[in-house]
Design goal:
The chain contains 5 helices and 6 strands. By secondary structure, it is of the alpha+beta class.
Length: 206
């Protein structure tokens, strides 16, 4: 991913927290010589050696998995909040722009066994059911229902490289107060989210 140096975020703790909060990503590889992408949860986890990995699954009916063995290289994209920024908010004349956060992860994928997938899905469901009024658990479901697990392909991704772009009006710090104010008053959730992030990062002097 092309990232101008002033937008590059190399704070691993901040980036990993972003991935955890925006774990519905895009898995990309090559299938029959063409790019193939699937939108799916990609959860940050640890391997047996304590290294960060991504864990996910796709439907077995999705032909994307058939290319995993021949070429394990994959790209995972995580999108965060984004918003249009009007240059009418600047003190000096300039063209408008777009603020956003995006993370690209390059890695190598290995397919999990059916039993490994089932174990992982138990934990995944328990995690996301926390806080529900009547949480469901795979451990309480019938064998007939759990047979659906046979219809998915689970995988782990060894992380080789992380690229994080945080484009948040760097270089226009004199206009940040106005930009934050204008974004906060927008109706779009993305605009307000970007505003909150800019305000938080500014308070930390970043």
């Amino acid at each position: 991913m092309y990232i101008p140096s002033k937008y590059k975020n190399e704070d691993l703790s901040e980036v990993t927290e972003f991935i955890r909060s925006n774990s519905f990503g895009i898995l990309i590889n090559q299938l029959n010589g063409k790019p193939w992408a699937t939108h799916t949860p990609l959860e940050l986890d640890k391997d047996k050696d304590g290294n960060d990995i991504l864990v996910g699954h796709i439907a077995k009916a999705n032909p994307q998995w058939k290319a995993f063995e021949a070429n394990s290289d994959v790209l995972c994209i995580f999108n965060g909040p984004h918003t249009y920024v009007s240059s009418s908010w600047y003190k000096e004349e300039e063209v408008p722009t777009w603020n956003y956060i995006a993370v690209h992860i390059y890695g190598s994928l290995t397919v999990m066994t059916e039993s490994e997938v089932l174990t992982w899905l138990h934990g995944l469901v328990d995690h996301y059911e926390q806080g529900e009024k009547t949480p469901v658990s795979l451990s309480e479901m019938s064998p007939a229902t759990l047979r659906q697990v046979k219809g998915v392909v689970g995988f782990r991704i060894k992380i080789d490289q992380i690229q994080a772009a945080y484009k948040l009006s760097q270089g226009r710090e004199e206009d940040h107060a106005r930009i934050i104010h204008e974004l906060q008053n927008k109706n779009e959730a993305g605009s307000r989210h970007v505003s909150d992030i800019m305000k938080k990062r500014g308070s930390k002097g970043s």
